[in-house]
């Protein structure tokens, strides 16, 4: 267990949390009638953009997968396009799953799709930054006892937390309270965001707590 | 005493059914009624008198109106008359309301807003109990005291045209009648024309005293297209012209008769925003009530909002209007506006009669009735009434007399209001004692089931019932003693009617002994478990971490569903819960599948120790293929198998997604629940008359698909029977006009399809008979497990055929998809992922629940498809109708349960205990929600939505529990054989 690695990861997580929080407050300075509930669609765009940018910065500054060797420019470009395609695929996949869960097919397509984008920016973009467009590696990380490093663990925790948060977020929708946040997809995106933030905060703590068991396992 | 798990589960569920019945008996209170059944004019009280002067008016007052027309429009909502729609489409009525001699009210109906209880409320003035809704399927004669009976006794001639529910409620009461059936909901013109065509004749004649018209068209329009449909306007206009016709005819007659006549325009219930009714929303509850008579004072043209009254007030008003005794069970109060034009003495007399009747009713239903506010007020009013009479008889005619009269009137009105409300309170009383006995039984059974999980799901699959533990004797007798003492105390002290006290003491003692025995068993099992767990404390840690994500999901889902029943919206929208859970389950299966195919190799690279395991797995897979191959060879479809084996990986990977897509499609077929029911769905599109050709094609394809999907595992005879049966289903649908034959474009000769339906019934019985015969054969001759599997499959296909006959035609899609899903799951998922019996049972249960809602069911009474109970029957026959309706409603869960039985018993060559485990799990998973719901309902018994949301759900749960107990009996019957075989 590398203490410095853990510290670097925690700082990265803090930045992610700050990005999410700022995405709610900063736009009110520039845009007039912006509010989380009122103009939810624009918030969805802004939040996903912020999170993706922070993840890319993360990749550039902290270099979590340091083992990858320096590669040529063409290779990098190739990787970039591949990542974009992966991201798009994941958006459509999430969209499909959300529709399967009962979201209307034709009505409010924009809402559903932007929610899918938000989910993919919480999950897929992080995977892309940490693991690269390398599908076998993803499968390895998301299988039982497949995590080999601190980063893998944090990835597991945040991804699961965001997805579970979105899943739980669907629960208040059938209630007859008539609150503005029960409108599709606000409660779900709220759930996903809260799940993501909680995941970010929990991951370092959980890893710190289990550090002995983890070092044993990763060998 | 050692008991096999399946026997234990079966017994537990049966006992729980008993507990549930006891609970329901206590929960649905008997309605307030008086002991003597019908009031007669001999019981009429004289006018109150004071010392010194006594009135000579002891007879019943004469009728106020010569003729009364009750003009009942089904599902007439308040705003159809008073709102903008009424102003636009009912010009004559609007004119009457503004300038004519009318009194207008909003009459509030009580839930359940269904036609039959509302008619009862209108005619008896009482509030029928919730159980009347269930009896709506079966409207027997109304035996309570009611206006119609009284009118007939008084020698009045009553003419009735309209909904034939009335004729069933009041047989032989009408001197002339013509009933229209509300059975064909899609018809909204013919039903009303059948009423209107008699009008000209009857209005010309003069030989009747009471005319009742019940128009159903508006209700049918509501059910078909909702309250905002373009059909509503013309229908209201039609009703308006009918009203004009009646009103003008009566007025022309009045010129030569001195006594005026009365028209009562009312609705039985309203209509929700989706067009249905049954609940207690404002739209469903508020109905208009307009009294039209030339005797009333002309209105000044000021249109104020109509006063809100109770629907039960109509009955006493009608009784007084017709000069009849007020029905004994009536809770209502006379509407003072109707008697305004009468003299003060008569008015006071009417209110005195009404108050007296309410007091008598209260006296019979409340022990401490003398202390009731209403009764005290009434006594006071009666006294001042006596004083007034004295003054009146003395010939006083001064101003003070009128003022005093007005004061007495006010006193009477207040007293009546109080009496009415305290009677209303009586109705909501629960029989807590019976309820708690039922709840205790259910709870103890649940504890027993939960505590015996470890041993019942062990490899031996039996449970040791500690009948002779040392604790047993002392504790048992102590508990018996205490409970009997409680019983005596409760039953001697309670003022209210209590069901459990009314049963014989020997039976009560037996039940008490049973309860204490159960609790002793539970306690000693708990003690044993604690002792055991102290020994193996360390072992338990590892058991929890061995849980897969699927186990966790199944556990969380079950618990989550149970908890969700605490919120009324989650009960209304329960289908969402199940769709959500099954969806998540499919995703979990997809993830497991991915892991199986993509990950096994990776792990192998890392760890060579797992190599062996995968080798074993490979061997196991080969074995599965072999068995499949054998099976399939016999079924002569090797081509499909070849394909399946070749692309097994991809088919297996895709199958969860296919199931997900099927679920999504089924969701759009029938919208249920409350919030989203108005969304357009595919089912409505199909059943609308313009799409008959599409529906016919779909039905034909579905029937063929059903045949293809189930014929494979049947014997030859049942295959043939199945084909004929499915053909018969199409003929039946064509005969009643739901689908078309390709050769005849428009068939006008509609029948009830009785011959066709009976033709199908014969094949259903035939297939069930062969299936049972095969099962029995396999029970006697132990050699052939295949016969048993075939037998079970035949029973299953018999039920499928019955469901195909009973389902609404567009729902055949549900049946086909059900079969498709079951085939996919059993061929590609459960076999490959090696789930154990418990997991498979829970998954079956979840899918069964989801299919319950896919069929279009919900937790409100209004979605029960009553027409299923009439298939193949000429008239209403109670037992088959109830059975068929119940089967059609619960066919989703039932078919999945039988499929589970078939699947598990075909798995028994792997583990001999699968059926026992499955049965046990099924019992546990049914028992948990039922018990928790009983406790929740007890806690929520004063909740606002108790009648509209929680009570229907309780009935649904009770019937589901009853059916599950039947399923468990089937499981046990099949499993018993298995155990004796393994012993051999
Ligand atoms: Zn009705
Ligand atoms: Zn209706």
UniProtKB/TrEMBL annotation, chain A:
<feature type="transmembrane region" description="Helical">
    <location>
        <begin position="41"/>
        <end position="62"/>
    </location>
</feature>
<feature type="transmembrane region" description="Helical">
    <location>
        <begin position="12"/>
        <end position="29"/>
    </location>
</feature>
<keyword id="KW-1133">Transmembrane helix</keyword>
<keyword id="KW-0256">Endoplasmic reticulum</keyword>
<keyword id="KW-0812">Transmembrane</keyword>
<feature type="transmembrane region" description="Helical">
    <location>
        <begin position="113"/>
        <end position="133"/>
    </location>
</feature>
<feature type="transmembrane region" description="Helical">
    <location>
        <begin position="154"/>
        <end position="175"/>
    </location>
</feature>
<keyword id="KW-0472">Membrane</keyword>
<keyword id="KW-0337">GPI-anchor biosynthesis</keyword>
<comment type="pathway">
    <text>Glycolipid biosynthesis; glycosylphosphatidylinositol-anchor biosynthesis.</text>
</comment>
<dbReference type="GO" id="GO:0006506">
    <property type="term" value="P:GPI anchor biosynthetic process"/>
</dbReference>
<protein>
    <submittedName>
        <fullName>LOC496083 protein</fullName>
    </submittedName>
</protein>
<dbReference type="InterPro" id="IPR009580">
    <property type="entry name" value="GPI_biosynthesis_protein_Pig-F"/>
</dbReference>
<feature type="transmembrane region" description="Helical">
    <location>
        <begin position="181"/>
        <end position="209"/>
    </location>
</feature>
<dbReference type="Pfam" id="PF06699">
    <property type="entry name" value="PIG-F"/>
</dbReference>
<feature type="transmembrane region" description="Helical">
    <location>
        <begin position="83"/>
        <end position="101"/>
    </location>
</feature>
<dbReference type="GO" id="GO:0005789">
    <property type="term" value="C:endoplasmic reticulum membrane"/>
</dbReference>
TrEMBL record, chain B:
<keyword id="KW-0472">Membrane</keyword>
<dbReference type="GO" id="GO:0051267">
    <property type="term" value="F:CP2 mannose-ethanolamine phosphotransferase activity"/>
</dbReference>
<keyword id="KW-0337">GPI-anchor biosynthesis</keyword>
<keyword id="KW-1133">Transmembrane helix</keyword>
<protein>
    <recommendedName>
        <fullName>GPI ethanolamine phosphate transferase 2 C-terminal domain-containing protein</fullName>
    </recommendedName>
</protein>
<feature type="transmembrane region" description="Helical">
    <location>
        <begin position="432"/>
        <end position="451"/>
    </location>
</feature>
<comment type="pathway">
    <text>Glycolipid biosynthesis; glycosylphosphatidylinositol-anchor biosynthesis.</text>
</comment>
<dbReference type="GO" id="GO:0006506">
    <property type="term" value="P:GPI anchor biosynthetic process"/>
</dbReference>
<feature type="transmembrane region" description="Helical">
    <location>
        <begin position="749"/>
        <end position="769"/>
    </location>
</feature>
<dbReference type="Pfam" id="PF01663">
    <property type="entry name" value="Phosphodiest"/>
</dbReference>
<keyword id="KW-0808">Transferase</keyword>
<feature type="transmembrane region" description="Helical">
    <location>
        <begin position="881"/>
        <end position="902"/>
    </location>
</feature>
<dbReference type="GO" id="GO:0005789">
    <property type="term" value="C:endoplasmic reticulum membrane"/>
</dbReference>
<keyword id="KW-0325">Glycoprotein</keyword>
<feature type="transmembrane region" description="Helical">
    <location>
        <begin position="813"/>
        <end position="833"/>
    </location>
</feature>
<comment type="similarity">
    <text>Belongs to the PIGG/PIGN/PIGO family. PIGG subfamily.</text>
</comment>
<dbReference type="InterPro" id="IPR045687">
    <property type="entry name" value="PIGG/GPI7_C"/>
</dbReference>
<feature type="domain" description="GPI ethanolamine phosphate transferase 2 C-terminal">
    <location>
        <begin position="645"/>
        <end position="959"/>
    </location>
</feature>
<feature type="transmembrane region" description="Helical">
    <location>
        <begin position="923"/>
        <end position="942"/>
    </location>
</feature>
<feature type="transmembrane region" description="Helical">
    <location>
        <begin position="693"/>
        <end position="710"/>
    </location>
</feature>
<dbReference type="InterPro" id="IPR039527">
    <property type="entry name" value="PIGG/GPI7"/>
</dbReference>
<dbReference type="Pfam" id="PF19316">
    <property type="entry name" value="PIGO_PIGG"/>
</dbReference>
